[in-house]
Amino acid sequence: xxxxxSCYLTMVAVDSEGRPARVPPLTLExxxxxxxxxxxxxxxxxRKQAEEAERQTxxxxxxxx
Length: 65
Known about the structure:
mainly alpha
């Protein structure tokens, strides 16, 4: 058996009205938990950069028409 892909989910806690609710922060205890948290933060940063680059590309294309 070999690892072929991964999936990352974002879950949001909601209150009785269905609005996002605050939850206690994560308690990272093991080196693996800390590493995974750091890697998730990096993925988030890279995703935001890619989204911004895509927005800029769309703006650039709309200005050239």
